[in-house]
Amino acid sequence: MEITQNQLEAHNDRASKAHQQSFNFIAATQQRVEEVISKLISFQVAIPSWALGTGGTRFGRFSGGGEPRSLDEKLADIGLLHRLNQSSGAASLHIPWDVPQDYAAIRQQAQHYNLRFDAMNSNTFQDQPDQAHSYKFGSLHHADPAVRKQAVEHNIEVIRQGIELGSDTLSIWLADGSCFPGQLNFRKAFQRTLESLQEIYAALPEHWKVFVEYKAFEPNFYSTTIGDWGQSLLFANKLGPKAFTLVDLGHHLPNANIEQIVSLLLMEEKLGGFHFNDSKYGDDDLTAGSIKPYQLFLIFNELVEGLDARGLDHATGLGWMIDASHNVKDPLEDLLQSVDAIMLAYAQALLVDRDALTAAQDNNDVTLCQEILQDAFRTDLRPVVREARLRAGGAANPVGLYRELQIRQQLISERGLKTVATGL
Amino acid sequence: MEITQNQLEAHNDRASKAHQQSFNFIAATQQRVEEVISKLISFQVAIPSWALGTGGTRFGRFSGGGEPRSLDEKLADIGLLHRLNQSSGAASLHIPWDVPQDYAAIRQQAQHYNLRFDAMNSNTFQDQPDQAHSYKFGSLHHADPAVRKQAVEHNIEVIRQGIELGSDTLSIWLADGSCFPGQLNFRKAFQRTLESLQEIYAALPEHWKVFVEYKAFEPNFYSTTIGDWGQSLLFANKLGPKAFTLVDLGHHLPNANIEQIVSLLLMEEKLGGFHFNDSKYGDDDLTAGSIKPYQLFLIFNELVEGLDARGLDHATGLGWMIDASHNVKDPLEDLLQSVDAIMLAYAQALLVDRDALTAAQDNNDVTLCQEILQDAFRTDLRPVVREARLRAGGAANPVGLYRELQIRQQLISERGLKTVATGL
Amino acid sequence: MEITQNQLEAHNDRASKAHQQSFNFIAATQQRVEEVISKLISFQVAIPSWALGTGGTRFGRFSGGGEPRSLDEKLADIGLLHRLNQSSGAASLHIPWDVPQDYAAIRQQAQHYNLRFDAMNSNTFQDQPDQAHSYKFGSLHHADPAVRKQAVEHNIEVIRQGIELGSDTLSIWLADGSCFPGQLNFRKAFQRTLESLQEIYAALPEHWKVFVEYKAFEPNFYSTTIGDWGQSLLFANKLGPKAFTLVDLGHHLPNANIEQIVSLLLMEEKLGGFHFNDSKYGDDDLTAGSIKPYQLFLIFNELVEGLDARGLDHATGLGWMIDASHNVKDPLEDLLQSVDAIMLAYAQALLVDRDALTAAQDNNDVTLCQEILQDAFRTDLRPVVREARLRAGGAANPVGLYRELQIRQQLISERGLKTVATGL
Amino acid sequence: MEITQNQLEAHNDRASKAHQQSFNFIAATQQRVEEVISKLISFQVAIPSWALGTGGTRFGRFSGGGEPRSLDEKLADIGLLHRLNQSSGAASLHIPWDVPQDYAAIRQQAQHYNLRFDAMNSNTFQDQPDQAHSYKFGSLHHADPAVRKQAVEHNIEVIRQGIELGSDTLSIWLADGSCFPGQLNFRKAFQRTLESLQEIYAALPEHWKVFVEYKAFEPNFYSTTIGDWGQSLLFANKLGPKAFTLVDLGHHLPNANIEQIVSLLLMEEKLGGFHFNDSKYGDDDLTAGSIKPYQLFLIFNELVEGLDARGLDHATGLGWMIDASHNVKDPLEDLLQSVDAIMLAYAQALLVDRDALTAAQDNNDVTLCQEILQDAFRTDLRPVVREARLRAGGAANPVGLYRELQIRQQLISERGLKTVATGL
Question: Start and end of every Xylose isomerase-like TIM barrel domain (chains A, B, C, D) (predicted)?
């Protein structure tokens, strides 16, 4: 199903008066609203193909209905999201879950929805039915060179798929680690991983990047071979200029100061990409901004500061992606809420009075530093985000229109009640 | 020093136009603004006497200037805060740091500043110069009955002081615990503590309450004898109807869901009081709302829901107090920021559409539940908080006026640059 | 397959000389060795049926071979373990994974292996194919009375199954909770859960118990309706004398002092049962004693102290069970290691010089308290555990004999390489 | 006071029979005992001057009696420890707490006690009475160049003091950080710190090293400018070959895998030194091995493996030091317990069958890997540690002899009951 222009306009018309009132107020009281809107319009957050279905835990999964059954339907879902918010114009595929049958057709379909292909994700944390060697004890770090070779070749295959689709990034998340003390020689595991990554790196086309993701724990519960940003940065530095660290908000130990990590990776010119989600305990993969919205704002505050300091374009300087798991919500509603929270945090960060902040920092005026950040965060910028969305051709209220049009019910009638999307 | 009515009005006049504009906007778009204002005006947050000076850590303290040197000056400082925000109309004293010389004079002084005396705090976590027995190994839980007796008598003495001042609550925080496995028999420590508390309880006047605070760790680093809400509730239930649990936001293990604890204690009719602060790692005692403002809102959401469910008055149903330590900010500015963040979170919680939330919860419409809470949190209610403050006779911008009038500089010239307030 | 007496004796003969040497040394230097042996022999740890297969995470599962395909084969596996260690003489079943077809036959089989049926476990955290209502949004706490009724009836059915098998305990773990702020009214969720539990409680036969398990998080990532020991104890107290709290070592927030919780629950006469495992990050479900063996010892130290203080028999006073997930080891080897670590910790705790410890505690001689505990923990009591096992008819080295006899290979040839046990 | 040879021998004679019995048993059953003893004898753990007095928290300090009042008395205390255990043959001084009056006399005194001077520690986390600029807002990272200059000069002065004493290492722990979001520009703070460190680095004599310590939090509670091993390693790499990372066990976020960090820093040839202590919650500074002895063993397991892999001498390859705070024990007893736990963990790590472990790792035989480590850890190596101590000329039971000789009482009679050592 697709949303028609008439449906969109009717919805926006109904919202128009209230929106104008609130937007006029904020536009009258804030000076840089137009600049913020312009940046918001350019900013696109990639949607991972696996987040379009209901997620689960080791204790089970409670599927919803109408989940996409194929890569085609996944792109259709992302197309729907992008139609509604005009901020989700990129798809991040996962191999082997999303191997296209016909590249030209898939590229054309993406074009139809106005989507590009963001980072390609490889999978060496699960065994596929036809696989020669098991990843039970890891992949790129495995003691057995045959397993490493298989995993390296898989990653190179993912690059090939990405070339066909017009992607320019390989994103590697390794589950490799250990569950018990003694299971692993940490140094050898690091060095074997490095060698494997070097082989993959050598296969990268000229203009490609590789993102090296880190994670503190899960699915291994004693050690992870790329466990924190320090380890990821070591790999990225040893690999070369095409290698970067990828930060996933849920991949840290309790109480970690993620915004400081972001700032330092930008300083080192090694921050590559970003996985948005939120969490209270571990890698909970909850909706972005649903648990710690101020942290999300603080991270954007560092991103804006750091990208500007390096002269990077906000929209293209880093890879922006959601990585979440929707266990109890409609996945599409959840993704709309996530993108909305991200845009809001970005808008707030753009509004920070940076000159005043720098002056207050130089004076150690801690009270004022806090006031400046809180002033931006407490300002209700939803009308500005909405205005940007409207100007870009999206809906005043994406979740609202999604519900008005009963999109989920339509997807169920198209696809069935018992579908299960490939992926987590 | 005191702020004159002229100074206040001049400040408010300057702020008037901008305030009216923003307040009119919110008043036009939100229905229950007057009700919120009325509740905000009634809501008072007690200021602890020890938070008026610069705090420190075990690594040292960097004092600021003009700190209060006596109980008189502490009340004067709280009077200043209350003059500015009209929401700090209560003082919480700490014995022996704040033993009054002349009760009548102190009561008169408090009346002058329009302050009442909130909960009285005892201290058995430090040795005083003239003390017979040491609290090195605890107080109410101590193996030696003589130490317990001394600690019990100190608490009864604090009640006596409180009676003189017109307080009606004893607040007990015990540092009692152990630093090493084996140091303590947990069961005996619990039972000895219970006996001690029962003796103190027996000394409570008819209309008094006792608050039993819990804390996960620090200053003991292996166990704390009243370590969590479950233990505090056990004590409160065994003691009787005058005993309640006190929740300090910083006294939990990492990732604790404090709002759920608050809800259940209200359900059990055993939530007594609240210590506001914020933290990232432990009992960091930072400015309320400075790290996790959404958590603060969620806690107020439960407080409003639970107080309403029990038919309790928001202003008097619980004891509200700040407990923070200001290591790098002017303590008075910090306290103004804390009270402001508390009022804002309270206002946001009051604005939650409770009927809609209940309906969404009953339907398991998780997306909508989140939207309802986020809608209240994302609304900029600072104009409403400001309006309440102005109507109550406070300043449009308390920190702003405090700076305009150079109050800290005046306090320094009155009291000196090298004063150190008694307390932490 | 079963281990013959000849195989066992041949193994034990080979180990005999080295064992005697080490046992004689410890028997000569420790006074209470015989008493410890006698208690070790009585002590039995129940094996949960779901721990006999390879576990997994939400990211996948790497099955091993020869996993039990039926309840019969599960009992056979537990029989093997018990044959090897003589300390695993109880099975804990999980309904609906383990519904017996023929009770008499199953009871007879258990008798053959010398096993009894420990606590029965219900499952309302997953949907079964034929189920009328979904547990996606919880079970006993559900807003919809029809879902609660279904879940209550399931639990009552599990009691019925247990009666047939000769069990006397129902163990309830609820996944009920919420993933997002606002999703749940905590108070109503608690009260609905209480009502549901009361209906189940009413169906308990005279001599039965019900264990109420708590868990901090997972599979819900914002709140859990029975989230900590305080909440579980509230339920147990409101339910009545047959209700007890069950402690699972992995179900706590970071840094929790579990041994103190154990001590206080014993004090309150509400500790019912125990789930052993180990963890570094969350509910990692690793082999008992593999990460924090000193913590395991400290917990046993409290168990011994508390059971003795209440005059309870160690073997029957509480329900002892392993609850682990074996993702990278042979499940049977893992369980043998777990039971061995538990027996060792229990033996160490039995060896603590309690009179000396009490005296040191009363003197606040912290150095000595630590020395006393460390002395017991540092003593190598493996010969004592081995002696107890040998006297009971087990193997000198259970994992060793399991490997010598190539039991896994035999199970694979019997059952196949691609079996997947029902359960997690 | 000093312990006489007669006193020592009499104590050892009394312990001799029991020791011989237990040592003979272990020597008969373990093959590499002599090699372990030889390494234990060489291994020396430096004692920090500030750990000789009673520590405290921000809530207070409960002093013990007989604390050292001067650098002379501190060296005398370390001399006592070394006399007892022959493993504490180094002192780590802290400037300005330990500025010597007469270098030659101090060097002579150290020689008398058979002590060398280990790493010198600077202090820019507290203000000294005569200091021009305050460190309230940091030192090496400070926005004001004058503050940075003062801090740099202090560090250079500490190097000068160290040269006089024969030390060859400067150990820098920075409290620099921030308490509130916005207070600091992380990137600029990093870069200013780097510049300051470069100036200090330039002042290092030829054969000196500088250790850059990291810490997750405290005394700053939002960010720390050198917050984790990744940041410390960045600094060490940018500084040059004389710069190394220092690991303090208590300076990590909850659940961190410290042994993996240790392994990787050794791999990078950037591990410089080690601060031993133990903790449950934060930087609790408890006795080494008192909370997580298995973790201590696992860390030593990596140290032994990594030092051997690089061909480094265990005794001199890294800087070994205790950094603890003794709040409830006699500091000297606490230090004896710490050193003993360190020696025990080191001995256990030396006993790990490394060839077997490597083979098991290469086979992914996780069960066996665990068995190998647990076998070493569960073996009672106290007789081996004792034998090493006796051969080196120490006491059979250091804490026992300390108590028999009533050393604390003698120190009190020499120094008084109310002394307070300089330092924390």
Answer: 100-285
At D215-261, the pLDDT tens digits run: 999 999 999 999 999 999 999 999 999 999 999 999 999 999 999 99
Q: Nearest C-alpha of chain A: how many angstroms from B290?
A: 8
pLDDT of residue D244: 98
What is the rounded radius of gyration, in angstroms, for the C-alpha atoms of chain C?
A: 22
- Pairing label, strands B47-48, A319-322: unpaired
| Residue A61 near residue C56, CB atoms below 8 Å | no
Query: A252, exposed or middle or buried, with CB in 10 Å at 0-12, 13-18, 19+?
Result: buried
Supply the pLDDT for residue C418: 80
**Sequence ranges of the domains in chain B:** 5-415
Residue C417 pLDDT: 87
Closest CA to C414 of C65, C55, C61, C5: C65
Q: Which residues of B touch C370 (CB under 8 A)?
A: 180-183
In terms of CA atoms, which chain C residue is nearest residue B134? C364
pLDDT category at A313 given cuts 50, 70, 90 is very high
| Residue A292: closest C-alpha in chain C | C181
What pLDDT does residue A17 have? 97
B179: closest chain C residue by CA: C366
The model's pLDDT over A387-404, given as tens digits with 9 standing for 90+, comes to: 999 999 999 999 999 999
Q: Are B275 and B213 in contact (CB under 8 A)?
A: yes
Q: Which residues is B92 bridged to in the sheet? A: B48
Q: Is the pLDDT of residue D424 over 70?
A: no
**Per-position DSSP letters for B206-258, written without gaps between them:** TT-EEEEE--SSSS-SSEETT-SHHHHHHHHHHH-TTEEEEEETTSS-TT--H
Q: What is the CATH number of domain B5-415?
A: 3.20.20.150
pLDDT at C377 over 70: yes
- Residue C407 CA, chain-centre distance (Å), reads 24
Q: How many CA atoms lie within 13 A of B275 on its CB side?
A: 29
Sign of the torsion formed by the C-alpha atoms of D389, D391, D394 and D395: positive
Give the rounded percent of residues in chain D with a pLDDT score beyond 70: 99
Q: In whole angstroms, what is the distance from residue C335 CA to residue C345 CA?
A: 15
Cβ separation of C125 and A59 shorter than 8 Å? Answer: yes
Indicate the pairing of strand C177-178 with strand B90-92.
unpaired
* B96-126 exposure pattern, b = at least 16 Cβ within 10 A, e = fewer: bbbebeeeeebbebbeebebbbbbbbbbbbb
Distance CA C132, CA C147 (A): 8
Residue A381 DSSP SS3:
coil
Contact state of B259 with C186 under an 8 Å Cβ cutoff: yes
Cβ pairs bridging A and D (under 8 Å): 150
Which positions in chain D touch A189 (Cβ < 8 Å)? none
Question: CA triplet C177, C182, C185: central angle to 5 degrees?
Answer: 60
pTM summary value? 0.98
Residue to mutate among D54, D295, D343, D378, with most C CBs inside 10 A, is D378
How far does A246 lie from chain D, in Å, by closest CA?
A: 15
Beta carbons of B367 and A329 less than 8 Å apart: yes
Nearest CB to A364; choose among D137, D253, D358: D137
What amino acid occupies position C302?
E
Strand-pair partners of C117: C91
How far apart CA B312 and CA C185 sit, in angstroms, is: 18
If you average pLDDT over every residue of chain B, what do you get?
97
What's the pLDDT band for D1 if we cut at 50, 70, 90?
confident
Are the C-beta atoms of residues C362 and B143 closer than 8 Å to each other? yes
For the stretch A121-150, pLDDT in tens is: 999 999 999 899 999 999 999 999 999 999
User: Could you tell me if C55 and C323 are in contact, meaning their C-beta atoms sit under 8 angstroms apart?
Assistant: no
How far does D295 lie from chain A, in Å, by closest CA? 9
